[in-house]
Amino acid sequence: MKFTSTAHHEKATSRIGLWLGIAFLVCFVTGLVSHAIQHPPSWFFWPSRPVNLYRVTQGLHVVSGVAAIPLLLAKLWSVYPKLFERPLIKSLPHALERGSILVLSGAAFFELVTGILNVGQNYLWSFYFPDAHYAVAWVAVGSILVHIGVKLPIIRRALQRDPLPDASRRAFLRTTWLASGAAVVATAGVTVPFLRDVSVLAWRSNKAPQGVPVNRTAVAAGVVRDPSWTLDVAGKRFTLAELTAMRQTTADLPIACVEGWSQSASWTGVPVVDLLAAAGAGPGVSVKVHSMEQNGLYRTSVLPGAHTRDPLTLLALRCNGEVLDLDHGYPCRIIAPNRPGVLQTKWVNRLEVL
User: Fold this and answer.
1) pLDDT, tens only, 211-222
2) pTM of the full structure
3) Alpha-carbon distance 78 to 10, whole Å?
4) φ, ψ (nearest 5 deg) of residue 67
5) For FRET with 262, which of 102, 180, 319, 335 sits at 20 to 30 Å CA-CA?
């Protein structure tokens, strides 16, 4: 069987592969950052400033993953005739090439499909998504490196300037870029404010309680209003009235979620550094935050010293000028600059000095 379309030419394949590699690289690096923030190794440090850094890195992570989908499909379309070549294995490099393509395709589809389902919070599996997503990302990157190593001479030749580019190949490449760009524009509004009105496939909007999306509601967390609630800070108890009477700070900070969406809001509350001082704890200590939620995977989080000493790290009592909605963590929640939303613990009832 012969395939004569120039869409299957090595020049088209290599150019799409170059852009796909860039998208995967951005997605991989920003994914490593997000994983390290949520599961920090002993050597890892993540600053509290600039306040929008995580918003940018996680937004890039999801947007680059979305952009990779049409690029991956186009790349596979350009090479699928090779599946019909005979013999199946011609040499050791050829075997490595085919094996790397098989592993890379499987890993890439796993990452992109589970990633898209994750942003929509549609978990059709029993495994823990962050660990599986992280592990398979390394498999994907390893197979990419093997594939590039095997195909490098062809890639170099194919990426050289073409003085007489084929019209149909140009049309195929142009369609691929447009499809990838359209996918980005249709979804990036979840984190890019000026695209919100045109991102028809955005999975979050500001049409939510107090203008901020909610991933986990109070009903889902099993939390109800408790008139007898108090906050334990390093063994000292504070009532809601006492917290309200303390010095209040207002800061415009984003909730930036691991699913890629983000939304800025005006938060008002007590700086954590003031709370720790009132309880006799020194500045810059690490703090374990406990929630009234009983069974969630993220019912606790750790605020490292870089955040507890930052005056913008708040025990928030109000959002956009209103008392916190129960779904946003009433009576109080943590809002810290440059943190994933999943670690901005809601329904806080204890701050434990570590």
Assistant:
1) 899 999 999 999
2) 0.90
3) 8
4) -60, -30
5) 180
